[in-house]
Write a structure and sequence with these properties.
With 234 residues, this protein is mainly α. 79% of the residues lie in helices and 3% in strands. It has a two-stranded antiparallel sheet with strand order 1-2. The mean pLDDT is 90.
């Protein structure tokens, strides 16, 4: 019976880093201003020969592709007064793989959110106000778990982002379509490794901050409950 009581709490705690990461992935993928920041920081208009407004339009088209049922990532942009196809077949195939991974994160977001909402609803229905303490413990341990995971990832990224970047691609993709030529493939011209490093630090930093807020709030509530229980026994 003890295992039956503990298991839902453990699953809830595990859901916290999955929900935070998947939600932050959705944010990073879908926010146009992040693309604009990268294009400006790394002078992508000069690298590609494509004007900034056309780059932003291409970014919006990519966001639409990642978040919709669109079959092809091919985009036409204006360069030197002519419409050109932005991506090669290899890049299009790689973007399909990227979309599959993004959609997997989105699926995790909905699954974890659904479980957490159901867990909280059932907890309050069955335990009433007593469930606040159980919920706080689940949030606290889930936040600690998140911080531990991202402390490792953040340190790895700071020490050797190149190796982390390579490992991510080798683990995530079953082919070598991600190996592109920066002299002719617009995808890697638009999104160099430094762009992904900035995105990774934003993702890690945002997740850590959210975990600190959740963990700090739940820890404060747990301490409040303990102090109240001690005062009741005095």
């Amino acid at each position: 019976m003890k295992v039956m009581r503990i298991t839902p709490v453990i699953i809830f705690a595990i859901c916290i880093p999955l929900l935070l990461v998947s939600s932050n992935v959705r944010f990073v993928v879908s926010e146009t201003f992040l693309y604009q920041y990268g294009f400006d920081k790394y002078d992508i208009d000069e690298v590609t020969g494509i004007e900034n407004d056309n780059l932003i339009n291409a970014a919006k088209d990519l966001i639409h592709y990642f978040n919709s049922g669109e079959d092809s990532a091919q985009i036409q942009v204006l360069k030197d007064g002519q419409l050109i196809d932005l991506f090669s077949l290899r890049e299009i195939d790689h973007l399909k793989d990227v979309k599959d991974i993004i959609q997997l994160f989105y699926m995790f977001q909905w699954i974890t959110l659904g479980y957490m909402v159901a867990y909280i609803a059932f907890g309050f229905i069955s335990q009433k106000r007593v469930f606040f303490g159980t919920l706080a413990q689940g949030l606290f341990f889930g936040s600690i778990f998140t911080l531990a995971l991202f402390a490792f990832a953040g340190i790895w990224a700071l020490i050797d982002f190149d190796n982390l970047f390579l490992t991510f691609h080798e683990v995530s993709f079953t082919n070598d379509l991600w190996i592109l030529d920066p002299s002719q493939d617009y995808l890697i011209m638009m999104f160099p490794e430094d762009f992904f490093m900035d995105a990774a630090f934003l993702l890690v930093g945002g997740t850590v901050l959210e975990a600190l807020v959740l963990g700090g709030s739940s820890w404060t509530y747990i301490r409040h409950i303990k102090k109240h229980q001690v005062s009741m026994t005095d």
